[in-house]
Amino acid sequence: MNPSAAAPFLTRPHRGLILDRDGTLIHHVPYLHSPEKVILLPSVREALELAINHGVELYLHTNQSGVGRGMFSLEDAERCTLRMIELLELGPCPFRRICTAPESPEAPSIYRKPSPRFAQEIFAETGTSPSHFAYIGDRGSDIETARNAGTRGIGVATGLDDLRQELASLGFSGVYPVFDSLLDAVNHFLEVTQ
Ligand SMILES: [Mg+2]
User: Fold this and answer.
1) Is residue 8 in a domain?
2) Which domain holds residue 101?
């Protein structure tokens, strides 16, 4: 083997994306609990495939307060995630880990975003610097999670609310980029972490 040819692979840092689900990968249906209502957003499959082809590991982090509020079960939420994975057609599961946070906003938060706990566990487990990761999501809480975890935050304007306006009200204007598609967001991530 030619050592110089192998070197780039050996020295390439591990990279990972922690993705939100509703409004980021699939259409945001408030309190979604029916798998038949799962619809992928445009460019999502292409964006995730691009990330995978670049060796980026994918993680899923979704707040499901409907579980904590007693509106549906954790299994209902997970069935919707499984339907999304089926629609993605990227193998049995393109995500290395999935975190479904069931807490209602009033309950003590463990994994509920903006808790950085899930991200911190990933960083510890993979031994990777947070600078090689990013959160991608459609809400201020996704970006706040990124800030709390000391990693990058990348917004997508594909949710129900105006993310740019929400970030402005949080004082994040101009601090975190917002893209109109997941594909643009992933391309940005690949560019800034190469
Ligand atoms: Mg969302």
Assistant:
1) no
2) 28-192
13 assigned to some structural domain = no
Edge-to-edge strands of the sheet including 95-101? 95-101, 56-63, 15-19, 133-137, 152-156, 178-179
CA of 80 to the centre of ligand 1 (A): 14
* pTM metric for this prediction: 0.93
Phi and psi at 60, nearest 5°, equal: -120, 130
Q: How far is the centre of ligand 1, averaged over its atoms, from the C-alpha of 10 (Å)?
A: 35
- What confidence tens digit (pLDDT) does each residue in 123-137 have? 999 999 999 999 999
Distance 139 CA to ligand 1 centre (A): 6
How many domains in the chain? 1
Distance 22 CA to ligand 1 centre (A): 4
CATH code of the domain containing 124: 3.40.50.1000
Q: How far is the CA of 61 from the centre of ligand 1 (A)?
A: 9
